[in-house]
Amino acid sequence: MTKARRGIYAAAVTPFNEDGSVNRAKLVGYCQHLLGAGGCDGVAPVGTTGEGTSIGMKDRLALPAEFAEAGIERDRVIFGTGAPSLSDSVALTRAACDAGYVNALVLPPYYYKTPSDDGIFAFYATLIERIGRDDLRVYLYHFPQMSQVPFSVDVVLRLRAEFGEVIAGLKDSSGDFEQSRAFVEATGGVAEDFDIYPSSEAFLWDGLSIGTAGIISGSTNIFAPKVQAARHAPDGPERVVAMEIVKKARATATKYPLMAAMKTAEAWRSGDESWLRMTPPLLPLSPTQKSELKADLALLNGGN
Residue 274 domain-assigned? Predict the structure, then answer.
């Protein structure tokens, strides 16, 4: 199977060594946990929550082969391969494809602001042409708050019309459900095999009901089992209650710097304080934030 399976994905956090390099073996093991007891259908490593744009090319290029060596299923991983340099994005996407991971989450080139739709189209067209593989599956990464380079519906439709199934879907991290709806209505969503993933699990059933493919979220690093419970709950009161729990969980996560909070939770789960390391300018939670997060998680989990 070429295309990534649909469902609940964690935008996986990244463990670092003391010298700032990625602890690749630990990341592989962590993603295996997410795909097992962590409750995820898939993982999206080295994206925003994974501090992907802060990770050096050496580590980013080496990771897909290590995932393959560990036997992680190819249709359960969507690697972040975006970069402001087209050449770097090509190299990262090719490394993933060479290891068998043909599903790539690709940011637009994010240094130059307000590029034209023609310029964005040219970036992705050139990427696809240089990779030169029919089995490549590109997921457009719409995150205008961070990239400052949004996708218009028009350019999404143009890319889909030109490259067909190679343009496999879109991750919508705008936080605006109406934006996700607009992408679904324009493309047909899963009914037309175009997989749109909102970035907040609070939108899970709103999205599934109109044709999204699931969720790719940073907070599913710790809350995926709650999201799966809501996903599989029968329509009616049971689902309403399950979704209320999901929304409370998401609200808890958003009280804190998300990446630092998820890494703190993993440090507690694993008993490994090295998970607290972050790449500057990002910083770990303060002692006060840690204390408040622990209390919030205890309250949340105690309510279940």
Answer: no
